[in-house]
Structure formats: C-alpha cells, structure tokens
Amino acid sequence: MPATMVDVNVSDFEEAFQKLKSEVAHKKFLLFLADKDPASSLSWCPDCNVAEPVIYQKLTASSYKVAVLRAFVGDEATWGNPAHPWRVDPRFLVKGVPTLILWENGDITGRLEEDEAHLEDKIDALLK
C-alpha cells in the first residue's frame, strides 16, 4: 500500500506534526533526514543515502496504511549545532540522521538511528 509522505523543515514542522498525529493510518512515522544537494539530489549524509531507498521500499510495500513525516534537518553546519531544535526537543532528542521513529498513542514506540536505519529486519519489526 502506498505510504503518504509529507516533507517539512524546522519552520513548518509543528503544523505538519499535528496533522500526522490526527492522520488515519495504521502506522505513523517520523523520518529525520539530512537536506539534499539540489545539484546531485543526494544528501550530505552518507547514512541517509543508504537508508532512504530501503526505508521507502519497506514502508510502501507494507500492507498497512502508512503515513510518514519527512523532517529535513538542514545542511551539515545547521545540523551540527548542538542546539538544533530537534536535538533538544524532549519529544524526539534526535542524535543523528537518518532517524526513523514510530509514533503511536502520542509517544515513540520504536526508533532506528543512523547506521541501523537501513536494516530491513529492523524496519520490518517496526511495521509489525
């Protein structure tokens, strides 16, 4: 079943997050990613370049209705700031990108970070 994906950055995140929470979907995910270079369409983050295709393949192949809020953290310098809003937000405390979060019943119930976000068996476990 196709996944519904919405792209946001820090400035428009809250409104989109509220919509995600009210979305009628069996599984709701937040995917924190590094920004892409417009010239190459690749992220500055090597882990994001590896994980994204695997994550999208798994989420869209799910038999469930899946909603994904793709939150782009900014360029490398912006993300490198220890005070980045998503690094310090107590709801998420994102340490690295990519980070895939399963959001259920108003809380994080599953999380894959950086070098584990591309592991198919771990993504499958979030989809169960």
From TrEMBL:
Entries under InterPro entries matching the protein: Thioredoxin-like_sf, TXNDC17-like, TXNDC17_dom
Stretches assigned to the Thioredoxin domain: 11-127
GO molecular function, one term: protein-disulfide reductase [NAD(P)H] activity
GO cellular component: cytosol
Keyword Nucleotide-binding: no
Keyword entries, A-Z: Disulfide bond, Electron transport, Redox-active center, Transport
One Pfam entry name: TXD17-like_Trx
Transmembrane segments: none
Domain of life according to the entry: Eukaryota
The keyword Chaperone appears for this protein: no
Free-text function comment from the UniProt entry: Probable thiol-disulfide oxidoreductase that may participate in various redox reactions.
Family label: Belongs to the thioredoxin family.
Name of the protein in question: Thioredoxin-like protein Clot
Organism name: Colocasia esculenta
